[in-house]
């Protein structure tokens, strides 16, 4: 919410100008101001200037809060002329805090110095206890704090917890008769308000401070720089230094240290170093800051929006006068020649940390050496910072030597020291050293803190060291420590990765018993289960029991649950959850909409995704580019290219710039559909908009040019892929190999193929294409070499690659290799496809299997008869000599349920048993065939002849030959050849020769008879025509 400024300011404030903005009343007025959490050079922030009439702006009485200690219900006086006398205001500089190493730190009750709590004498301890436990603070203040000295007032003020109490106590002190306003008290209040990010109330306090005649000191400015910087308002924080410079104050070392910290934490390392070096020569240059220099300080519209930077450039610059505070340094050009060196330990610590984080180890080491040379005392923080710097930059041995130097200088390491070493050893992968550092903490009488355990648990979980991790947790429980919520998701992830889901559940239940989980932690744990596809477990956590304070589920939890359902493809459940979340008081955010749209698009529910996309825009959210691209990609997959283009146009109208993924999907979609012109047009648009093509886009263009048969265009695109980081990938290279193969360009294809092999990117497609190229060019030896190399490299991973390799081997006559590949394929649970069986039929023919037998197997496969596939495979194994595999396959159907087999199955069984030398089993199978009433055919007799020949059963051969001669068995060339081979196996060459002559005479006579019959039919036809 942007407020408008209704008050003008001048260099010299009169009481009239500020009489309507009482700081103390404004503190407790109900405000709509929202604390700032992140810097923004563009955004506006509220300064609390309400647009109500001045008489209604601040209430005159304040009601007590409903919880906590009862704040006083009292009437506060406005700042008006009657509050101040016409005499010059008495100003007290108060007393200086003795902690020079960090004068900006206002210690709380629990603050300590080197581990020892501060102790106060006199009445202060009893007053502090009373104020902490009192229900009526106003009564306690009047009863105990009316006659305190300025120093005692300061102690009471700085020990209060919470900005509200600080303001109440401060208002009470100001109401005392002899109270003298001083900078220290205002500094305490300003710091409390800044830490609470009550910027509007801080402004009022600043204005009141000026009206009281109290000038800001170096401590004031240092404190303001600190609180604004820690709030993330880097630019605004540094504007206080500009204000300080305009007032004639030069930053002291503490203030300078605060500026460096702000710049360091913002990652502005060079600017921080430059500011430090300029300070050393007495000069502060802030010209490189982006100030609103165009603002007219003297003419500000009362209705103009007020930004924090604008406020700093107007009101604060004109508040407090230009009179330098006595005793402070003045910024002038004369000081440029003055050499300065830091004298505080904290400054050197900040500088070492600055150089370490910016990777400037030499500068960090020089600063460390300068510290020694200057005689500035080192503390534990100094060594911790230097140890961390050396370790993170890879100099672990130097870090360990610094630990020894600490002991030599009698500077005791603290828990943070050992935490740093635990972290460094963990990053280096030295688990034992990290655990040893953890053990040393107790050995030197220190106690591990939350950082210690968090670092250790993270290290052990990442390495799946379950036992060691559980030992650490057990040690924590002995000291009544609970596992930090940041560590819980990592522990559960480790358990799930190790398959220990029961332990993960027990651990989570224990964590819930120890206290409620934050929404962020709960969502992170749900996300662990969601990523593993364990949606039911994520759902149980989502609907699990919660304490009263967290009954309402956070939108982050809903987003993760939607993701879990989406990964499990439970789209209906995800949509139902999305639609009902409002009923439970949680409204979807931009992330929710993006997640649901992308989920639906991934599930090809594109119409629902498109509808939700429109709803998202209607709710005022701007969809991400990835959300639009998911919808476009879905339309492309579904071949709905017109809808994909429509979504693309909608994306442009919404002001979302398409990225390479969007253009890639459109180009690929049009390329696959054959619409080459549109694919090229979108590529042109992509280049015009400055989007660089990636591998996917260029590969899609290769497809386009391949469809066009445009070799030159394809080659040009391939050359572009070489300019990408990492060069062309396997997809692009395979496309070029395929293109070269189509044009028969062997050497060019070999060059690309060899390049892929050198990079380790050659895949089954690369090898398959090269085999096809060599085979088509008649280079069978090279084709076989590629097939062997492919087999040895383990790239035979799918049915297609096996088919290509078997084709290559069968073409070269290496039939046994084909059988071995078939066996590998079956062992990998890869089911042969139609191309595979087509190859197997070719292999059987090349192996000399009777054509009638092959036709019978082909017919059984086409008719999808039971055991057809097993019979074909068994036949191949038997034919190539892999008899044990053939018998195993054969017994798979012969020993199946006692059913009548088809004739082809009996024939295969007889064939397999006969070739393997198991003649008895072959003959028994023939008898079973007859018992089952299955009539033998020509294939049956051919297989029996093989068995008779192997067994030397000449009578059996004669019987079959007689049946063949008298026409009881169908005459075929395969039958005669089988008889000839069988007689020769039985050492009856005479009978083999007789059958061979009979075969030749019979088939020659048959040919003559067929020829004569054909001639007679022709003559008859001619006579009819005549």
From TrEMBL:
Residues 1004-1026 are annotated as: Disordered. PROSITE patterns: PPR. PPR repeats lie at residues 182-216, 217-251, 344-378, 379-413, 414-448, 554-588, 589-623, 624-658, 659-693, 763-797, 798-832, 902-936. The keyword Repeat applies. InterPro entries: PPR_P_subfamily, PPR_rpt, TPR-like_helical_dom_sf, TPR_mt. It holds the Pfam family PPR. Signal peptide: none annotated. Residues 554-651 form the Pentatricopeptide repeat-containing protein-mitochondrial domain. Residues 1016-1026 have a biased composition (Polar residues). Keywords: Repeat. Belongs to the PPR family. P subfamily. PANTHER family: MITOCHONDRIAL GROUP I INTRON SPLICING FACTOR CCM1, PENTATRICOPEPTIDE REPEAT-CONTAINING PROTEIN. This is Pentatricopeptide repeat-containing protein-mitochondrial domain-containing protein. It comes from Linum trigynum.
């Amino acid at each position: 919410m942007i407020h408008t400024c209704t008050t003008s300011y001048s260099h010299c404030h009169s009481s009239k100008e500020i009489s309507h903005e009482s700081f103390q009343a404004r503190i407790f007025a109900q405000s709509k101001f929202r604390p700032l959490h992140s810097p923004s050079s563009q955004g506006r922030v509220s300064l609390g200037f309400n647009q109500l009439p001045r008489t209604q702006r601040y209430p005159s009485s304040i009601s007590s809060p409903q919880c906590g200690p009862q704040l006083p219900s009292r009437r506060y006086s406005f700042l008006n002329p009657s509050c101040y006398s016409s005499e010059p205001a008495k100003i007290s500089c108060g007393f200086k805090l003795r902690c020079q190493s960090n004068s900006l730190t206002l210690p709380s009750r629990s603050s300590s110095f080197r581990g020892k709590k501060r102790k106060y004498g006199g009445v202060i301890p009893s007053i502090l206890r009373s104020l902490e436990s009192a229900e009526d603070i106003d009564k306690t203040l009047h009863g105990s704090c009316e006659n305190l000295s300025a120093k005692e007032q300061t102690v009471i003020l700085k020990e209060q917890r919470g900005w509200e109490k600080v303001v109440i106590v401060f208002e009470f002190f100001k109401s005392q008769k002899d109270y003298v306003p001083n900078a220290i008290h205002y500094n305490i209040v300003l710091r409390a308000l800044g830490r609470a990010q009550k910027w509007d109330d801080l402004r009022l306090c600043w204005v009141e401070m000026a009206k009281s005649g109290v000038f800001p000191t170096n401590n004031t400015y240092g404190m303001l720089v600190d609180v604004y910087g820690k709030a993330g308002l880097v630019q605004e924080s540094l504007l206080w230094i500009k204000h300080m410079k305009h007032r004639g104050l030069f930053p002291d070392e503490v203030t300078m240290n605060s500026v460096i910290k702000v710049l360091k934490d913002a990652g502005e390392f060079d600017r921080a170093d430059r500011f430090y070096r300029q300070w050393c020569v007495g000069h502060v240059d802030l010209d490189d800051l982006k100030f609103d220099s165009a603002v007219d300080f003297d003419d500000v519209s009362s209705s103009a929006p007020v930004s924090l930077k604008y406020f700093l450039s107007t009101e604060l610059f004109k508040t407090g006068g230009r009179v330098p505070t006595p005793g402070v340094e003045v910024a002038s050009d004369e000081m440029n020649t003055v050499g300065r060196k830091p004298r505080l330990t904290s400054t050197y610590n900040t500088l070492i940390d600055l150089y370490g984080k910016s990777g400037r180890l030499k500068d960090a080491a020089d600063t460390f050496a300068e510290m020694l040379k200057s005689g500035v005392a080192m503390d534990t923080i100094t060594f911790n910072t230097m140890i961390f710097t050396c370790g993170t930059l890879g100099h672990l041995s130097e870090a360990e030597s610094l630990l020894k130097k600490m002991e030599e200088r009698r500077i005791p390491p603290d828990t943070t020291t050992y935490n740093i070493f635990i972290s460094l050893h963990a990053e280096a992968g030295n688990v034992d050293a990290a655990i040893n550092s953890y053990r040393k903490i107790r050995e030197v009488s220190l106690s591990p803190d939350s950082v210690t355990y968090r670092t250790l648990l993270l290290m052990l979980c990442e390495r799946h060291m379950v036992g060691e991790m559980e030992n650490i947790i057990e040690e924590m429980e002995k000291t009544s420590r609970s596992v930090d919520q940041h560590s819980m998701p990592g522990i559960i992830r480790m358990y799930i990765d190790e398959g220990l889901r029961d332990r993960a559940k027990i651990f989570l239940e224990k964590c819930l018993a120890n206290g409620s989980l934050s929404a962020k932690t709960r969502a992170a744990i749900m996300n662990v289960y969601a990523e593993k596809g364990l949606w039911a477990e994520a759902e149980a956590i989502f609907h699990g029991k919660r304490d009263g304070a967290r009954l309402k589920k956070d939108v982050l939890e809903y987003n993760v649950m939607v993701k879990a359902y989406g990964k499990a493809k439970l789209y209906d459940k995800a949509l139902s959850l999305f639609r009902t979340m409002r009923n439970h008081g949680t409204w979807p955010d931009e992330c929710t909409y993006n997640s649901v749209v992308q989920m639906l698009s991934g599930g090809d529910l594109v119409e629902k995704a498109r509808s939700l996309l429109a709803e998202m825009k209607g709710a005022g959210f701007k969809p991400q580019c990835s959300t639009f691209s998911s919808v476009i990609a879905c339309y492309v997959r579904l071949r709905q290219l017109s809808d994909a283009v429509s979504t693309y146009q909608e994306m442009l109208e919404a002001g979302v710039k398409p990225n390479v993924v969007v253009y890639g999907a459109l180009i690929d979609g049009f390329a696959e559909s054959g619409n080459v012109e549109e694919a090229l047009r979108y590529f042109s648009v992509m280049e015009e908009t400055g989007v660089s093509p990636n591998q996917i886009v260029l590969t899609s263009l290769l497809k386009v040019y391949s469809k066009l048969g445009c070799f030159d265009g394809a080659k040009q695109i391939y050359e572009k892929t070489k300019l990408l980081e990492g060069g062309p990938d396997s997809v692009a290279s395979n496309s070029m190999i395929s293109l070269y193969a189509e044009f028969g360009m062997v050497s060019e294809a070999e060059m690309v193929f060899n390049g892929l092999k050198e990079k380790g990117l050659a895949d089954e497609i690369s090898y398959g294409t090269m085999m096809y190229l060599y085979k088509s060019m008649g280079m069978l030896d090279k084709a076989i070499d590629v097939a062997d190399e492919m087999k040895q490299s383990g790239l035979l991973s799918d049915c297609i690659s096996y088919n290509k390799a078997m084709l290559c081997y069968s073409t070269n006559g290496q039939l046994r290799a084909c059988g071995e590949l078939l066996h590998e394929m079956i062992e990998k649970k890869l089911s042969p496809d139609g191309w595979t069986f087509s190859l197997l039929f070719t292999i059987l023919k090349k192996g000399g299997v009777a054509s009638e037998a092959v036709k019978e197997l082909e017919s059984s496969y086409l008719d999808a008869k039971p055991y057809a596939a097993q019979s074909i495979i068994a036949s191949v194994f038997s034919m190539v000599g892999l008899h044990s595999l053939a018998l195993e396959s054969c017994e798979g159907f012969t020993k199946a349920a006692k059913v009548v087999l088809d004739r082809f199955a009996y024939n295969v069984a007889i064939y397999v048993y006969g070739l393997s030398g198991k003649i008895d089993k072959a003959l028994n199978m023939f008898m079973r065939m007859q018992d089952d009433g299955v009539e033998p055919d020509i294939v049956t007799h051919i297989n029996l002849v093989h068995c008779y020949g192997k067994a030397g059963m000449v009578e059996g051969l004669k019987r079959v030959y007689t049946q063949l001669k008298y026409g009881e068995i169908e005459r075929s060339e395969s039958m005669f050849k089988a008889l000839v081979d069988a007689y020769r196996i039985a050492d009856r060459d005479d009978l083999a020769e007789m059958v061979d002559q009979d075969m030749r005479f019979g088939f020659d006579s048959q040919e003559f008879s067929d020829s004569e019959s054909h001639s007679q039919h022709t003559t008859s036809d001619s006579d009819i025509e005549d």
